[in-house]
Design a protein that fits this description.
Sulfite Oxidase, Chain A, domain 2, Immunoglobulin-like, five-stranded antiparallel β-sheet, binds ligand MTE
Length: 496
């Protein structure tokens, strides 16, 4: 057997295994596909610093990078196992079995998969072993070369069909159809219109409302949970007087409210992009919790998503009348996009997303911080995480070349208090007030701008925000871990 054939056998054996797993997963639960289950488990086990690095470096592409990286590793393993199997099929057999075992372990570890899920990696292991041994048998008999070539083609073709078929069956849940069927979510209390002059887009700030398309996305889901509104139920239980099981129709028929809210991710570095604003439509969370009757002593609202992710939110915060926490169903005039939590998610103004903004939410448990620990808590992040007062310079960009009369513009946020003042200084000189755009509400960001006349040469501009409580964004730089970055954003540019 040539080296090429041996390597090809390894690759085809693994391809057949993954395709078989993907096909069975399509039937029993799409995330049971060995590739996805291993990937998702890898995400959960990835040391936090590495995960933070991935989010920082690849942003929303971090998942793509992970998948490509896994594919490269698996192909490399397959080639090595194939090459080692030139004399005996044992190494390839071991690899295929090991793949199955790793897949089973990953599926068992997934919180969102039932027992049936193990069928997918088991199928992968069994098919991988059988296919590899069959091909190996054919290729080891040089007198039947045409037969062995046919075998390779059959396996390649069948793998493609099984893989594509699995993808097709696995995504048959018609989420987009369900979203369309939801139609318009009309709030009885719409959010006040965004006033003219709430942003300085012409000077380089983002628009006040972020389109759903452009809204930042951060989550641990390698494949987005696909839930239909018709099947969705939200369970409210734990330390409550009466347990509730709310269906989508139950919620949407209520008096819906609309609130303009700026979400922020704790992973956002000073100057970073993980902050966006939308009009969210939904049901006040405190009303639902009041209906369930929160027992005294319950200090944590522990929310769980369909894919098993969890967040812990202080009960006193979500119960505040002025806070405006929502079970959100809609975003910017449409049902939540699938990536942003369809059919429903939590939105709690003033708290970073990882302790509050559960997407694809299916379970609300009233409990205590002493009794239950949420997802990020065991990965080095804080238990309580109110959003920190922050400002960001959007223009000029770092290292830009600009004329002597330059407009510096950016955004600032301090949810739920609101921004009272933004100041800038050049080259460590005196602070001067920036002009603020129209305020919308304390739970949204606020745009600012200032015109400067500067001499030719290099300059550094810094900004700092002061919120409505009088607190000023501190200079001290701290990293996002464990409860959010601090420090002044600073930009170096050149006046020509
Ligand atoms: N189910 C689920 N919900 C989640 C997360 C997640 O990983 N899984 N990430 C949270 C984090 S860290 C943030 S910052 C917000 C981001 O919401 P967005 O993707 O809609 O911007 O969602 C939160 N909700
Ligand atoms: Mo986040």
């Amino acid at each position: 057997m040539t080296r090429w054939t041996a390597a090809l056998l390894g690759i085809l054996g693994v391809a057949a295994a993954l395709a078989a797993g993907h096909l069975v997963a399509g039937l029993v639960g799409p995330t049971a596909s060995p590739f996805l289950a291993v990937g998702n488990t890898a995400i959960d086990f990835t040391p936090s610093p590495l995960k933070d690095f991935a989010v920082r470096t690849f942003g929303t592409y971090d998942k793509l990078v992970l998948l490509v990286g896994m594919a490269v590793v698996i192909v490399a393993l397959a080639v090595v196992a194939g090459l080692l199997s030139r004399e005996s099929p044992l190494p390839g057999t071991v690899l295929a079995s090991a793949l199955g075992v790793v897949g089973v372990a990953a599926v068992l570890y997934r919180p969102d998969l039932g027992q049936l899920g193990v069928l997918a990696p088991v199928a992968a292991g069994v098919v991988g072993v059988l296919v590899f041994r069959w091909l190996h048998g054919l290729a080891s008999r040089p007198q039947v070369r045409s037969e062995s070539r046919r075998g390779l083609l059959i396996v390649a073709g069948a793998s493609v069909i099984a893989g594509v078929g699995g993808q097709f069956v696995g995504t048959r849940t018609d989420v987009e159809g369900s979203r369309r069927a939801v139609g318009e979510l009309k709030p009885v209390r719409p959010a006040p219109a965004i006033p003219d002059g709430a942003d300085f887009v012409g000077d380089g700030t983002p628009g006040f409302i972020t389109s759903n398309q452009d809204f930042y996305r951060v989550d641990t889901a390698l494949s987005v949970p696909r839930l239909r509104a018709e099947d969705w139920v939200l369970r409210v239980h734990g330390m409550v007087d009466r347990e509730l099981n709310l269906r989508y129709e139950d919620l949407r028929r209520r008096d819906l409210v609309e609130r303009t809210i700026t979400l922020t991710c704790v992973s956002n570095e000073v100057g970073g992009p993980y902050v966006s604003t939308a009009n969210f439509v939904g049901v006040p969370l405190r009303d639902v919790l009041a209906e369930a009757g929160v027992r005294s002593g319950a200090d944590q609202l522990f929310s769980t998503s369909a894919d098993g992710w969890t967040a812990g939110t202080p009960v006193d915060v979500v119960m505040e009348e002025d806070r405006g926490a929502l079970i959100a169903l809609g975003m910017n005039g449409e049902p939540l996009p699938v990536e942003h939590g369809f059919p429903a998610r939590l939105v709690v103004p003033g708290l970073y997303g990882f302790v509050s903004a559960t997407k694809w939410v299916v379970d609300l448990e009233l409990t205590t911080f002493a009794a239950k620990r949420a997802y990020w808590l065991d990965r080095g992040w804080a238990e309580k995480a109110p959003i920190k007062t922050m400002s960001r310079i959007d223009r000029p960009k770092g290292l830009a070349k600009v004329p002597g009369r330059v407009t510096v513009a950016g955004v600032a946020w301090a949810q739920p208090t609101g921004v009272a003042k933004v100041e800038v200084r050049v080259d460590g000189g005196p602070w001067q007030d920036a002009r603020l755009a129209a305020a919308v509400n304390g739970s949204t960001w606020r745009m600012w701008r200032v015109e400067l006349d500067l001499a030719p040469g290099g300059h550094t501009v810094e900004s700092r925000a002061t919120d409505n409580s009088g607190f000023t964004q501190p200079q001290e730089r701290v990293e996002p871990v464990p409860d959010g970055a601090t420090g002044w954003h600073s930009i170096f540019f050149t006046v020509e």
